[in-house]
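re: ur question from earlier - yeah i can do the single chain one, its not a big deal. heres the input i used so u can compare w yours
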Amino acid sequence: MALHSLSEPAAPDLATREQEITLLLEVAKLMGRSGDPDAAIYRILGMMSQLLGLNRGRVLLPDPDTGKLRIRHAYGLTDAERERGRYSLGEGVTGRVMKTGQIALIQDIDNEPEYLARAIDRATLPQETVAYIAVPIVQDEHAIGVLGVHRLRRRSRQFQDDLNVLRVIASMIGQVLRINQLIAERTAELVSENRYLKSALDTQGGQYGILGESPALKHVLKQVHRIADTQATVLITGDSGTGKEKVARMIHRISQRNARPFISLNCAAIPADLLESELFGHEKGAFTGASSAKTGKIALADGGTLFLDEIGDMPEALQSKILRVLQERVVQPIGGNRDIPVDVRIVAATHKNLQAAVNAGEFRLDLFYRLNVIPLHIPALRDRASDIRLLTRHFLDRFTHLHGWNVVLDERVLERLEAFDWPGNIRQLENVLERAVLLSSDGRITTALIDEILHEESRISPHEPTRTPAEAAAPPAVNPAPLAPNDDAQRTSVVRPYQRVHASEAERLLRAIEESSGNKTRAALGLGLTPRQLRYRLKKLGIEVT
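and the output i got, formated as tokens:
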């Protein structure tokens, strides 16, 4: 193949330079706004012909099946010509450019043996001297394709000017192809993840928020389907954060009771002196502050399901009353003198070993037997590690939508997550991923960030309840004063006082905000504070951050 030397070019005239600038500006605009690479490249090739006389432009790319170069984009070529334009690596002028990565300038195609005239028959070209220029399209120092054009040799425009423009255009086309490739890869990744999540949601427990395909979880779900339509009491056991309430809700939703209420009550979250009123209700004037009658949770669940979470923390005095409900199916409100029949299915849950509690005299044996008619044990996350990838994708999708950030995982992040012991189970994984999304930068969750978060999590006691990022950052709560049994508003509030603010904190707060690019929420989480606590400290210190 002849690669002709070029004579010293004459200085280009003003009109030529204006044409080149117009072309490059239009190409830049196309790169910035076109979501369709086929249309963008077609327009680029068309402007090269109209403005500079570089005709029959074509972009050749390797066929993914055969590896041969084929014309993928063209301007001024028929479908038949495009179909004929196929070249093996090193074959002809075009194949040689792809193989070597070198520019080819053929000043007269009739005198070049390696010019094959395969795509465009010579008879269809002007009957005068025709030149052919082929420029490699390069990415990461490797040719990924070829940009080829014809031009008449007699034109006054210098070959060197054409070469300079074509090299720039080839680079721009390479960027268009690269952007399209990245979009295609990301779209394929999202489609794959969506299909994976949809497949998981179509499984036995997916539509009820219970995600996983591990044998341990499938065994539980199989049991749930088997016992859901019975009237038997169910005792769900498992570590904190394993999803016991989700299983209870699933039992209710697939049972014949699903048209009636599902009432949930956490026995550990309500003070002992209030729990009886919550469960059984009270009559007006039953005690000081009982200004009106109140229906208890058991009666509210009539016809449906009552979920008693952390029943192992129920006071012994109440255990006997729950036993009576199970045996006689009646309730008597505090201050009342008549039994009220109830049709309720009780599903109880605990993270404690109730058999050990019975042996220690902390839980009634007869109640244990009444509850333990159908035992369901929810496996810990460490016993279903194969579900971590699915759960991670699910939570990542939720939090990127919730916070409006498009975040992806770096390689090996999933390996880090799968190797962690997860003492707080699914709830802990959920919190870790939300924190990672909020603390991520440049749209990526890196292994370094995950390692840092997991290092912090590893210091949490396996018996300490896993908290949300905001709860973990808040100061210890003050024990509230005793409340009247019907004082719901006070009972549900938790006093969280702010710690004293010192002037020495100012530099640390400002540095955190600066490192978070002004994002106060991310800065607060990095400091171990809630956003509200950060705003409080800034206000106290007289710091204004826009």
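Residues 313 and 489 are 23 Å apart (CA to CA). not sure if urs matches, ping me
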